[in-house]
Amino acid sequence: MPAPQRDRFRGKNVLITGASQGIGEAAALRFAEEGARVAVNGRHEDKLRAVVDKLPKVDAGPHVVATGDMSKEDDVDRVMRTSLDEMGGLDVLICNAGIMRPSPSEDITLDDLNAVLAVNLTSVILCSRAVLKYWRSNDLKGSILVNSSVHQEIPKPQYLGYSASKGAVGNVVRTLALEYAAHGIRVNGVGPGAIVTPMNDAWVHDPEQYKTVSSHIPMGRPGEGREIADALTFLASEEASYITGQMLYVDGGLTLYADFQKNWSS
Ligand code: NAD
Fold first, then answer.
1. CATH code of the domain covering residue 22
2. Which of 82, 87, 128, 193 lies 20 to 30 angstroms, CA to CA, from 41?
3. Listed range (4-8, 27-31, 44-48) with the worst mean pLDDT
């Protein structure tokens, strides 16, 4: 796919959590291609440096490595400070980090449940709190984006913590959007379907499983990280200036009740 021609984020600073690979990395690339200075977060500095090395350079200055575990309060505060100090401000926060720990629900452990909720839900609230504090105390506007999932809507058996966390972030988006709408702060989310990223290594590299996954998707194929990044840049841009509190599903039709694609009910 050709690089975008537009420069919608020239002069803007963007922090992306969980940007060492997958959708977060694709988003970092997409924002930088459009002129943004990007702070990439993840837990491993070497991986983040490798991502930064791949990003196009921008006028505003070097992209930033902001290492930290976003499920931990101290790390969130440090990552936020690093991003603000090094970039001199923040216009867009993308809460993208996410994990899954599958098991039959009768066997779910408290450790697994807490781990999933900490990354997928609590970190969204902690990161949002930090950026909202910065914007409000400096009378600034900005945009928060949350990477949710089709499983905000579609139940996912054996992924109870994941489903619960994604359902909850949908309400975090709507609540924050309403609370801060009058201050010009927009809060939205994207809901990816099945996307080719390391999170899905189990089927991405197995031709048979890839075919099976594709057969469940109305558009007949999984999505690419870049296609989620396109939705994130749109929602963060001026083109979405009147959109807040919304969830944009980017899923090839998965949330359309795929089983009804061929009539079986009448
Ligand atoms: P991925 O596993 O490839 O990448 C996840 C990223 O989050 C990695 O960079 C990882 O290091 C980071 N991360 C995990 N825990 C972290 C923590 N505590 N602190 C900081 N960073 C942390 O996954 P992906 O497919 O790119 O998923 C990104 C987001 O998209 C997740 O929130 C996921 O739930 C969501 N999503 C993905 C899909 C899909 O099919 N890939 C579908 C729906 C939703």
1. 3.40.50.720
2. 193
3. 4-8
